[in-house]
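Sample pair:
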Amino acid sequence: MARKHVSPRPKPITPETPDPRHRWDRPLQAPGHMQVDFEERVDFRRLHAYRLGRVRQALARSGLGALLLFDQHSIRYVSSTVIGEWARDKLTRWCLLTGNGEPWVWDFGSAARHHRLYAPWIPEKQSLAGMVGLRGAVAPKAGLFKQAAQEIKDILKAEGVGEMPLGIDVVEPPFLFALQELGIQVRDGQQAMLEARMIKSQDELTLLNMAAAMVDGVYHEIYEALKPGVRENEIVALATKRLYGLGADCVEAINSISGERCSPHPHNFTDRVIRPGDQAFFDIIMSFIGYRTCY
């Protein structure tokens, strides 16, 4: 009697198992910025699930009970929330992930409300308004650091990791001191986050390729504009405008360097006028949906 054919059970999609629907022997996609119904492009919910899974695995191996994150890129990686460049250097947003729970996000008041409306993957009660020191603009004696530290300690206890070390990436010193005063063991959390972010998924590679394609186009425009009489800062203005037009969410820096300024490389730009025969050097550092270029 012929044996009944049984299809093999598909392997589960995990952070360490590539999505089987992707042909890894094919070139990486560099699609446009729209979603379409006739091609599979970036799946943002799959992207979020992958990144959160990577962090959970790194956290489980770290000996930490939770991660408290202030770095904007790590917050976005864990929570898929962002409020733009305003928050980059203020350390006034933070995100907590325990080994047993979903992400908690503290954000500037109206942004927290926005997340409740538009980011349903964050539990509504875990998208909270928060503001502490604004890099020294609010003195510790106002009590905001102590209040936030107590809130974090209560969550750690409720989620069963109150006695375990807490990993932190970057932090204002008064916030660190407030946590330690409550008996929380603070450890380095940067390495766990770097381990999580090291291996990119299909969706992350596609976003990186899309970001690179944007810069390719801008470099061609620089090539066409580069001639004697043009100033370094004019090239920066041209590139910045074009990148935002293409959909960049942050143009962090554009190095525009010419002539005698090329060596040693100063990592900036001036109003120097480009002259015939000059060497010229450019570096475009920008972000598309959080995925960055530097070339």
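The domain at 202-294 is CATH 3.90.230.10 (Creatine Amidinohydrolase).
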